[in-house]
Amino acid sequence: MDEEFSLDEIISYARDFQNFEKVFSAVYLHPDWLTTIPSTRRWAILHHIVLSGNTVHFDQILPSQKSNVQFRLLTKTADQETVLDIAKSHVYLSDMLKRIERLIKLDELLNYAREGKWDQCIEIVKQDPSYGNEKPPYRRFYLIHHLAYWNAVEPFKEFLKIENFHFALLLRVDGKKVNDIAREANCEAFANFIEKEYTAYFDDDDDNDILYEPSAAQNMLNQHDANIIIVPHTIYNEPQSSSAPAKKLLNRAEVNKLVPRKAKPINISNIPTRYSSKTILNLLTCSLTRATVTDPVVAADGFTYERTAIENWLKANDCSPMTNEKLAHKDLTPNVLVKRLLDTLTQ
């Protein structure tokens, strides 16, 4: 936690394809560093990672940008090259090129959706129906959440006419279902429609106390006098497509078997002032349970999870809980950075 490093040093590691663990740590602590180009440099960290051809490292670094609204995948080098240009210019980067091209297509789809350009969205989903239920790791909304935000009932029906396409109706944003997103935007027509047409997906069983709780850490960031945070644990399970039967959400007894109930309190006052408290607390939060991790691991999608939670997810799923993309593998790697943060902040 007390380790000091400079942007220039980290760019040097990325340029030489060395010490990715330190590059990973630096970018997660300073998300804007991924695409920052100092005056003495031509390329940012992201460009060097692409040139390395290591798609594992590429996927692991992108989730660092989920809170960076300024991030753009096609950020340019000082020579006006994008990551796409770099990938196209080297034969050995064929796998990297495919990955970048897919992310670009997903970005195109979601940019159209954000603007309410449904005809263009439909054409993209026709090309590959899987696009309709995936998103890049640095985006907040899936396609269906944009539809909800636009109160777009009729366009939703048009998507259903696409051959071999079904919406994954329980994809969530910050733990919220699509009907919740619609109501937040005062789009009652969409919320009412989706609840009526797909009752089984949105009829919560209150007797099981299965409400998805937001991370208490995020709530308490707004309380300036709060230094000690203890985060509750919850977890959900959901089907991958609307064609599959709705899975029953896990109740409290089942949750107890999956994740530790007791996490050590996090002392915010121990966070060095050079780091954002929000950034640190995001790092300490399991992407699946939204609770403080105790045994943090990184999955193939680059997101950090509580080990037992993601292991349970992987027993029944081969996709990322955060992007719905198919995982390259199911191996889990200890998150050394987060573990070190935990050791420091729980002292």
Concise summary:
With 347 residues, the chain is mostly helical. It has helices spanning 7-15, 20-29, 45-52, 55-61, 83-88, 94-114, 118-127, 143-149, 153-159, 178-184, 188-197, 199-202, 216-220, 252-256, 277-283, 307-316, 336-345; strands spanning 228-229, 266-267, 296-298, 304-306, 333-334.
- Strand percentage: under 5%
Q: Name the poorly predicted regions.
A: 205-256
Instruction: Specify the number of helices.
Output: 17
Strands of the widest sheet, in order across it, are: 4-3-5
CATH superfamily of the largest domain, please?
A: Zinc/RING finger domain, C3HC4 (zinc finger)
User: What is the helix content?
Assistant: 40-55%
Q: State the end-to-end CA separation.
A: 12 Å
Main sheet specs: 3 strands, antiparallel
Number of strands: 5
**Element pattern in H and E:** HHHHHHHHHHHHHEHEHEEHEH
CATH architecture classification of the largest domain: 2-Layer Sandwich
**What number of structural domains do the residues give?**
3
Radius of gyration, taken over Cα atoms and rounded to an integer in Å: 21 Å
Judged by helices, strands and strand pairing, the structural class is mainly alpha
Shape: globular
